[in-house]
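Technical annex, item 7. During the second reporting period the consortium partners agreed on a shared format for inverse folding records so that results from different sites could be compared directly. Each record opens with the tokenized structure and is followed by the designed sequence. A conforming record, contributed by the partner at site C, is shown below for reference.
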């Protein structure tokens, strides 16, 4: 290459601007490794980490903006092989939008939430449009919006204590930030209904069986040795009715034994990191442009569904902030272990059926524990 050659920059903003944004999203380039585990000179994997572990890596508005810029930057970096998207700690990859911010700022402000959802949509699109393969390193729970941004990734490798699922209809929203687009494509319409409507979460073992994960690895170490998740059935077997038990919760004595084993152990994500690095190496040992083209084509079922629905979903979610989302997010934010974090769904349905209107007093009366206070 000529000594006077200079690359043209294609980033939206300089790297120092990205670095100056919130420290609740971390960006770093880690050396790529060959198939012998040796660092490769001049080539890297970009790691984007949600760094809000005290709130289960839920994303605030500021975090969403930085994630977008980080993915755009990683996509353009000529020395980057793959992008690893993960969360800090071992409790959660991400549990979705920050419910405190939702409840205290966006509830009752549909125009503001509509602008926020533009950012959220751009975050999902930045993942789906990244020119590098994207690996979701699932270090813990992947719930709600966290499940949506996780499914937007190309590969997902999970520690096997993680859980996967949606929370929308239980907390005043609908999973139209990607899950209603991606779930039917990835696991089929019926199981998508179970996850999206009933908000029933899956274990990592079941998530892999259904097709949500590239691979799972153990994370619980007992007496220095990895053991599979002791709370779920990890062997491929069926019950008396022929139903597959793999990945389903244990019950009775087996569950009690599993909980006892968990108390003796500790979480160690070393195996997860090894598996992620191994996948990065597999990607390194391919033609880069052929890999990018293949990924672009294989993303199309998700991308087509996403692009067809994201704008009308954004509008609905904004308007919903006046009613059910207003109540649901506030209930989660204002509730606690004692009174719960959900509204009284039966009372809500009864009162709506009787013609009661939504309004501030109506929403206040739906908060967890409100009925007990009124009865005093």
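Designed sequence (site C submission):
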């Amino acid at each position: 290459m000529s000594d006077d050659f200079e690359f043209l920059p294609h980033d939206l903003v300089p790297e120092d601007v990205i670095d100056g944004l919130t420290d609740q999203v971390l960006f770093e380039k880690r050396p790529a490794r060959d198939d012998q585990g040796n660092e490769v000179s001049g080539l890297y994997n970009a790691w984007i980490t949600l760094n809000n572990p005290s709130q289960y890596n839920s994303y605030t508005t500021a975090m969403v903006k930085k994630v977008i810029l980080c993915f755009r930057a990683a996509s353009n970096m000529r020395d980057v092989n793959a992008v690893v998207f993960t969360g800090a700690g071992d409790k959660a990859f991400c549990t979705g939008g920050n419910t405190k911010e939702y409840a205290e700022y966006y509830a009752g402000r549909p125009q503001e939430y509509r602008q926020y959802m533009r950012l959220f949509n751009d975050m999902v699109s930045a993942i789906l449009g990244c020119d590098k393969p994207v690996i979701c390193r699932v270090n813990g729970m992947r719930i709600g919006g966290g499940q949506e941004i996780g499914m937007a990734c190309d590969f997902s490798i999970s520690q096997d204590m993680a859980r996967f699922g949606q929370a929308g209809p239980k907390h005043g929203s609908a999973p139209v930030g990607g899950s209603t687009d991606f779930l039917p494509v990835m696991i089929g319409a019926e199981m998508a209904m179970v996850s999206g409507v009933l908000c029933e979460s899956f274990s990592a073992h079941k998530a892999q069986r259904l097709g949500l994960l590239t691979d799972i690895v153990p994370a619980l170490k007992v007496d220095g040795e990895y053991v599979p998740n002791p709370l779920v059935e990890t062997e491929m077997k069926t019950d008396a009715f022929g139903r597959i038990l793999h990945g389903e919760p244990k019950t009775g004595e087996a569950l009690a034994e599993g909980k006892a084993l968990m108390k003796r152990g500790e979480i160690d994500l070393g195996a997860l990191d090894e598996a992620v690095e191994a996948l990065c190496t597999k990607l390194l040992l391919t033609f880069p442009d052929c890999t990018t083209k293949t990924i672009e084509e294989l993303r199309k079922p998700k991308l087509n569904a996403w692009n067809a629905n994201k704008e009308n979903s954004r509008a609905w979610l904004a308007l919903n902030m006046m009613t059910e989302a207003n109540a649901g997010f506030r209930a989660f934010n204002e509730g606690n272990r004692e009174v719960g974090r959900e509204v009284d769904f039966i009372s809500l349905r009864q009162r709506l059926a009787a013609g009661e209107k939504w309004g501030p007093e109506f929403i206040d009366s739906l908060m967890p524990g409100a009925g007990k206070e009124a009865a005093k």
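The chain has a mean pLDDT of 95. The chain has 16 helices and 13 strands. All partners now use this format for quarterly exchanges.
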